[in-house]
Every structure is written in structure tokens, then in C-alpha cells.
UniProtKB/TrEMBL annotation, chain A:
Primary localization: membrane
GO molecular function, one term: ATP binding
Protein known as: ABC-2 type transport system ATP-binding protein
GO cellular component: plasma membrane
TrEMBL record, chain B:
Protein's name according to its UniProt entry: ABC-2 type transport system permease protein
Taxonomy of the source species: Bacteria, Bacillati, Actinomycetota, Actinomycetes, Kitasatosporales
Superkingdom of origin: Bacteria
UniProt cross-references to InterPro entries, sorted A to Z: ABC-2_transporter-like (IPR010390)
Membrane-crossing segments per the record: 60-85, 97-115, 156-174, 180-203, 236-257, 269-289
Keywords: Membrane, Transmembrane, Transmembrane helix
Length: 328, 301
């Protein structure tokens, strides 16, 4: 972690959330057991950072976001957003944060998009000039111009998501939380949302924390990623670093002149030939190693025609990580 | 590696001192009384619902009429009974109409303003309550204004018509105090029903499928109060006097207006207690709401 992030805009120290879950075992009878949805998580996010927060379903992502927004009270630990304890001063914090729940719109179903924005204007007491300025900017960048007078129920999913993001930004929040902002969107809508978030972060310095299942979101937006599983922070760092932690492999695809038995390199025991299909062979090698010496060795011993290197599939890396975590 | 063009500027942005909020006028963040904030938020949200319903004018007209007609049949049933008997539980038709009119109107007002609170359980279940918790205004006001519908005025109108009939038809010696009693009953009655709506909603934080339990007390209570206490068992009358203070909506004050004897041997002055009772009932209802919200925020379901 960078030295500058030690005093963060968002600060979590050993934050926990424990739920008492009651399971019905019969009429009026139940078993209680405790579930640690978030188990002693600590991290800092500096102002202006853009962080991806990922993990499988039920890992504790949403619970963390709910604590950061003040919806849920932590069971233990210390939590601050912009110096405010969210659960104690929820309504004061509300002026400084924007929240987008990907699967729950906050827009008014039967009313034109514009009306929902007017409500935000009044509810957050946004100064008129500021409101117009922010609305104009969102309308332009999210391409909402023609949608403002359309009832929300007639909008497509992608249009509605853009509308929701705009609604969360009219009051100039310093931090924006997005829970699955691209879920269910088509490719074009996804890239538009991503482009907007990138610009927002770069130009306005808005701190962004997003949860997602789509790792492309993270790849294109966040230089920092946090992986959570079973309520614990498994990884916090650059996306690239995940490969090393996850012991991932890259794949070298080689085309030989003719069909040959699987390539075997005595000098490189970490390389495995995983597949042979006619003259084409697939070799797996650790992502941390360089491909160049390997290619040189193959070229020396085999009649090489063509080759390509495939980067490890990040989803596979993370899936591997989850597996090793549960195996512990 | 993946596109990290944004990351370069991010480092620079982190140096921006303070937020953009710094140049917002101070009064935006001024601390205001929660009640005032709540009423303002209620108004804002209720207006949104009014505009939403205006998107379907025909539907609005039909449901408003339906609401009026459905409640009107209630009273028609009472009229039918009186076509066979002269008195019901010892009460004449205008007397019953007074009880009915006061309860119906008071309940109508509470239902108009807070009637959607029984949807809280559903909001908890589907998670949409969370979207209200991230707003800078009181949650109670947002939940109360949810699905605000003017069609509920149909109920108020119907109650008011019956009350109007009672006031014209009653053959009693009106004193200034008895006249003042009428608006007093309506206001404190609406407040008592309102507290009941809030308490019922608070219960739904714990039991999310309890909307029908709440309705049993609110709508059921209203139906109960439309008949004189003399037709009910003593224990029931005790319950709605001392446990859930519904008897203060109309029974006790109306019996004073009618110059009738009190149930349970209660003294005359209880007729003047409704405003006090309403205030006292709001206290536990408000506390229950806070406790419910706190429980929700610690369990999330």
C-alpha cells in the first residue's frame, strides 16, 4: 500500500459485522448461530482513488458497502468516511456520498427522468446554480438529453443505469459507491458507463468504490483491487499482482511445421504441455516467468512457425484464490 | 496491462484539499429540527406520488370512487340493520352515526397520511429500504410518504358525510364544550390511529410479514369503533381503553357529547383526555420505531 494512503479518506480498522441468524427447525423453534459476514477488515482508501471490491456472492461485499454508507452498524472495529462515523451520523454523511445500487433503481418509475432529479435537487438542498451545472454535465456525458422527458419505466436497463448514476452525482458527492453498476448491461452500455466513471474520477477527483462480478470493469477502471471472501480481505493491491498471489499460469501457443510429440524441455521443468492438436501445441508456464527464454529454447529445438502468448484469465485466478481460501 | 490511463490523474486528484462541498453555502448543512425536516421531506415525496398517480388519471378516478363506495357500504350495512331495529346496543341511528363518522374521518386522515406504512415489511424484504437510508432526510418521513395517494380522501369524505348527518340529526343540547369536542376528537383520533400505524410499522422491522397483524389493529380498530362499546364484551372494551387506547378516538369523548353513561365505570373527565392520550401513545410508538430501525441496521434483515 502507498505511504500516502495511511491516512485515508475511507478508513476501516478491524471492522466486523456479525449476524445472528435464526434458522427454523420447526414450528416456533429455531437454532441461532452467528455468521461473521465481515471479519476484521482493515483498509484505507485515499481521496481520489478508484478501487474495485470483488468477491463471490455472500462474501461480505454488500455488507461492507452498507456499513460504509451508514445503513448497517458495524459490530466492532472503527470506521470513518470523510472523518464521519457513518452509522452515527448517517444523514450528515448522506450529503457527501453517492450510492448506486445496480439492481435497485432510485428513480421514479412513472415519472420523467427529470422529475427524479428535481426531487434530488430539493431533498439535498442543492444550490440552484450548482444543480444546473451538475445536471448539464451529467446529461452531456451520460447522453441523457433525449431521455429527460421520458418516463423511467420506458427506459432500457442501460439508460436507467445511466440515469441512476446521474441521480447519485447531482449533490457533488466526494465518494461514489457503486454496487454492480454494469450488471445486466449490454457491451455498449457497459463501456459508456465505464468511460463516464473514468472521467469522473480523473477530472473531478471523486473517490470511487465499486463492487462487480465483471472483471473487465476492474481491468478498465481500477488500478487497485480488493478481494474479499468469507468476510476476510484476501488481497489488496494492484490487479496485476493478483497473478502472482494466485499462482496463475500464462499459455504459450506454438505452431510447428508438422505434428510432433508433446514438447519436452529438460531445462525448464515448470513448463507443461497441456494440449496438442495437430501441429499446434499449448504450453503452460508460471505467469511470473518471462516468455522470451522459453521461446528461444523451443525455437532452437523445434521447427517453429508461429507463436502467441495468452495472458492468464483473471477470473480463473480469482476462482483459484477462493478455492485455496476455502481449503484452509 | 489493462487500461490504467485514469490512474495517472488519480494521483493528482488526491491532492485536492477539501471537497467541492467546501464552496457550498453553509445553510445547506445547517442542523434543523428533525420534525421540520421530516415534514418537508414528506411533502416532497408525497408530491412525487401525486404526480405519479396523475400519469394514470382514469385509474385514479376509478380507485378514488372505489374507495368511497367500499367504505360507504359499511354504513349501508348499519342502515339496513336499523330498518329492522330502532336501537343498536341501546343507541339510536344518529348516535351510531356520530361514533361512525368520528372514527371513520379520524381514521381516514391517519390512513391518508400514514396508510402506506404497512408496506414497510415488503421494503425490508426486497431491500429497497436501503435506498431510503442513504438519503439525508428522516426514514420515517420517507416511509410514511411512500405511495401517498389522494384517493384515500374517499374514506375521509365518506366519514365526514356520515358525521355531518349525525350532527344535523342528533337531538342534543349543544354546549360550547360539546361543539369544541368534535374537532378535538377528529384531531386526536387521527393522531391515535397515526401512532398505531407507526407502531405497527415498527413491528414489521422484526416480523416482515406482519402487515396483516397491523391491518387487524388499524382497519379492524376502525370497524370496532363504528359500533357502541355496549355491544362488545367488557374485556375487549378494557383492552381498547387501557392497552391500545382506541377508545379515546371516539367512544369516550363521544359519549360525553351524547350525555351517555361511561363503560367500565370510568369518570366523566376521561372525555377530555384524548389529546393527552394521543401524545402519550406517540411516545412508545416513536421509541418502537427507533428501536425497530436500530434493529434493522444491526441485522440488515
Amino acid at each position: 500500500m502507498d505511504a500516502e494512503t495511511t491516512t485515508g479518506f475511507i478508513e476501516l480498522d478491524d471492522v466486523e459485522k456479525v449476524f445472528d441468524v435464526r434458522r427454523k427447525t420447526g414450528f416456533m423453534r429455531g437454532e441461532r448461530h452467528r455468521v461473521r459476514a465481515v471479519d476484521s477488515i482493515s483498509f484505507r482508501v485515499a481521496r481520489g482513488e478508484m478501487v474495485g471490491y470483488i468477491g463471490p456472492n455472500g462474501a461480505g461485499k454488500s455488507t461492507t458497502i452498507k456499513m460504509l454508507t451508514g445503513i448497517l452498524t458495524p459490530s466492532g472495529g472503527r470506521l470513518r468516511v470523510a472523518g464521519i462515523d457513518p452509522s452515527r451520523e448517517r444523514t450528515r454523511l448522506a450529503h457527501r456520498i453517492g450510492v448506486v445500487f445496480g439492481q435497485r433503481t432510485t428513480l421514479w418509475w412513472d415519472l420523467p427522468l427529470r422529475d427524479s432529479y428535481r426531487l434530488m435537487h430539493r431533498m439535498y438542498r442543492i444550490p440552484d446554480a450548482r444543480y444546473r451545472e451538475n445536471l448539464d454535465r451529467c446529461v452531456e456525458l451520460l447522453d441523457l438529453g433525449e431521455l429527460l422527458d421520458v418516463p423511467v419505466r420506458q427506459l432500457s436497463l442501460g439508460q436507467r443505469m445511466r440515469g441512476d448514476i446521474a441521480a447519485a452525482l447531482l449533490h457533488d458527492p466526494e465518494v461514489l459507491y457503486l454496487d454492480e453498476p454494469t450488471i445486466g448491461l449490454d457491451v455498449v452500455s457497459k463501456s459508456r458507463v465505464r468511460g463516464f466513471l473514468r472521467d469522473l474520477n480523473a477530472e473531478r477527483g471523486t473517490t470511487v468504490l465499486l463492487t462487480t462480478h465483471d472483471l473487465t470493469d476492474i481491468e478498465q477502471l481500477c488500478k487497485r483491487v480488493m478481494v474479499i471472501d468469507h468476510g476476510r480481505l484476501m488481497y489488496d493491491g494492484a490487479l496485476a499482482g493478483l497473478h502472482e498471489v494466485g499462482e496463475s499460469e500464462r499459455t504459450l501457443v506454438v505452431d510447428l511445421e508438422r505434428q510432433l510429440p508433446p514438447i519436452r524441455l529438460e531445462s525448464a521443468p515448470s513448463v507443461r504441455t497441456v494440449k496438442v492438436e495437430g501441429p499446434r501445441q499449448w504450453l503452460a508456464f508460471p505467469a511470473s516467468e518471462s516468455a522470451a527464454p522459453l521461446v528461444a529454447r523451443i525455437a532452437a529445438d523445434y521447427p517453429l512457425v508461429d507463436l502467441s502468448v495468452r495472458e492468464p484469465d483473471i477470473e480463473a485466478v480469482i476462482a483459484k484464490m477462493y478455492e485455496s481460501a476455502t481449503g484452509m | 496491462m489493462a487500461d490504467t490511463t485514469g490512474a495517472v490523474e488519480v494521483a493528482g486528484a488526491a491532492d485536492v484539499p477539501g471537497g467541492r462541498l467546501a464552496d457550498w453555502p453553509e445553510e445547506v448543512f445547517a442542523r434543523r429540527p428533525r420534525f421540520v425536516e421530516g415534514v418537508r421531506a414528506y411533502g416532497l415525496i408525497a408530491m412525487m406520488w401525486l404526480r405519479s398517480t396523475m400519469a394514470y388519471r382514469a385509474s385514479f378516478a376509478l380507485t378514488a370512487f372505489g374507495n368511497f363506495a367500499a367504505t360507504a357500504f359499511d354504513f349501508v350495512a348499519i342502515l339496513l340493520m336499523f330498518s329492522h331495529v330502532d336501537r343498536l346496543g341501546g343507541y339510536t341511528l344518529p348516535e351510531i352515526a356520530l361514533l361512525y363518522g368520528v372514527s371513520g374521518t379520524a381514521f381516514g386522515f391517519a390512513d391518508l397520511l400514514l396508510g402506506s406504512m404497512d408496506r414497510l415489511g415488503r421494503r425490508v424484504r426486497d431491500g429497497t429500504l436501503d435506498t431510503l437510508l442513504v438519503r439525508p432526510v428522516p426514514v420515517l418521513a420517507q416511509v410514511a410518504a411512500d405511495r401517498f395517494a389522494l384517493r384515500r380522501l374517499g374514506r375521509v369524505l365518506q366519514g365526514a358525510l356520515v358525521l355531518g348527518y349525525a350532527l344535523v340529526a342528533l337531538d342534543i343540547a349543544w354546549s360550547p364544550l360539546k361543539v369544541a369536542m368534535v374537532p378535538l376528537m377528529l384531531l386526536s383520533g387521527a393522531a391515535i390511529f397515526g401512532a398505531l400505524f407507526v407502531a405497527g410499522a415498527a413491528f414489521q422491522f422484526v416480523a416482515q410479514d406482519a402487515a396483516q397483524v397491523q391491518n387487524a389493529f388499524t382497519y379492524g380498530g376502525n370497524t370496532l369503533l363504528q359500533y357502541p362499546p355496549s355491544v362488545f364484551a367488557k374485556d375487549l372494551v378494557r383492552g381498547v381503553t387501557f392497552v391500545v387506547p382506541l377508545a379515546f378516538v371516539n367512544w369516550l369523548p363521544a359519549l360525553y357529547v351524547l350525555g351517555r353513561e361511561y363503560p367500565l365505570g370510568l369518570p366523566d373527565w376521561v372525555a377530555f383526555l384524548p389529546p393527552l392520550v394521543a401524545g402519550l401513545f406517540w411516545l412508545p410508538a416513536g421509541l418502537a420505531w427507533r428501536a425497530g430501525l436500530r434493529a434493522y441496521r444491526s441485522t440488515g434483515s
